[in-house]
C-alpha cells in the first residue's frame, strides 16, 4: 500500500484530540492496567479509569458516545438468518465483553442481520448504541426502509442512522436534494425515531464533499493496509483534517478486507492496530465465531499507537 494514504505526522499527533481517548482496565485478558502515560494522546484528552473492566474507549465525535476500540459489524455470521443461534451467541458474547456499538444495514443478509440483532435487542436494547443504514437516496424510500429496520431490530429508535455506500457525487446529490433521503433523516430525528445522522463511503473525497454539505455526526469509511475497497486515498489526509475540525466521529470498516488481507500475510493484530493508529473512534469487525470476540477484545486491550515506521512496514508487506 505504498503511498496510498499519504499519512502525515499531524494525524498521529491529533489522534487523542480527535478521538477523545479514555483508557480502562483490561486485566481479565492481558493482566495489565493501562494508564494515561501508555497513550499517544495528549494528557488532557486521556482519562485513566484503573478500577473499571473493559476496553479502551474513544469519543464518537459530536455524538458524545464513548465507544470501545472494537465494535461489532453486522455481516458474516450475524447476517445469516439460517444461523440465528450462532448469530445471537456472537452478539451476546460481544455485549458481555464490553462492546456497546453494533453496526448493521437494511440490506445485510437481506434483512437477516437486523433480524438477528433484533432478537438480542428485545432484551438488551439499553446496552447498545445501535447503528444501521439505508441505501435509498429518496425521501419516501428512506422513510419506508427505516420503518422496516425498526421492526426487524425490535426497537422504537435508532441511535445512528446512516446513508449507505455513498461512493459518487450522483448519489450524494440525490441524498441532498429537496426530496432526498436527508430530508427523511432530519424528520426522523425531529420525531425522536433516530438520534444521530451519519454517512458511509469508500471514498474520502466524497466524504469531504458530504461533510462540507451537511453537519453529519459520523463518517464510516474503509481503511486497511492493503487498500482493499478503498477509493481515492490521496484525499484521506484532507478527510481526517475536516472530520477533526467538524468533530465528526470516524468509524473504520473493512479493516481486514473481509478476511482477504490475511492471504497477504497480515495478521488481525496488525490490521486492527493499523486502522486504530489513524484518527478513528472505533473499528467495526464482522465475526464468524464467538472465539473471535475474545481475540478482537484482546487486540483492543493491548492496542499501542503504531509509529510511522511501523505503519510503513505493514503497508510495504502487502
Instruction: Count structural domains.
Output: 1
CATH architecture call: Alpha-Beta Barrel
How many helices? The count is: 13
N-to-C CA distance:
7 Å
Measured by DSSP, the beta-strand proportion falls in: 15-25%
- Tell how many strands the DSSP assignment holds: 12
CATH topology value: TIM Barrel
Cα Rg: 18 Å
The CATH superfamily is identified as NADP-dependent oxidoreductase domain
Characteristic key phrases:
globular; 318 residues; 18% strand; single chain; eight-stranded parallel β-barrel; TIM Barrel; alpha/beta; two-stranded parallel ribbon
Question: Would you mind describing this structure in some detail?
Answer:
- The chain has 318 residues and is of the alpha/beta class.
- It has one domain (58-316): NADP-dependent oxidoreductase domain (TIM Barrel, Alpha-Beta Barrel), CATH 3.20.20.
- It has 13 helices and 12 strands.
- The strands form 3 sheets. It has an 8-stranded parallel β-barrel, surrounded by 6 helices.
- Helix 4 crosses helix 5, helix 6 (139-153) packs across helix 8 (181-190) and helix 9 (204-213) runs parallel beside helix 10.
- The N and C termini lie close together (7 Å).
- The model is unreliable at 12-20 and 27-52 (pLDDT under 50).
Give a summary of the structure in a few sentences.
With 318 residues, the chain is an alpha/beta fold. It contains 13 helices and twelve strands. It has one domain: TIM Barrel.
Task: Give the SSE map.
Layout: H1 9-13, H2 15-19, E1 22-25, H3 27-30, E2 47-53, E3 57-59, E4 66-68, E5 70-73, H4 84-96, E6 101-103, H5 112-124, E7 129-134, H6 139-153, E8 158-163, H7 169-176, H8 181-190, E9 194-201, H9 204-213, E10 218-222, H10 236-245, E11 249-253, H11 268-276, E12 282-285, H12 291-301, H13 308-316
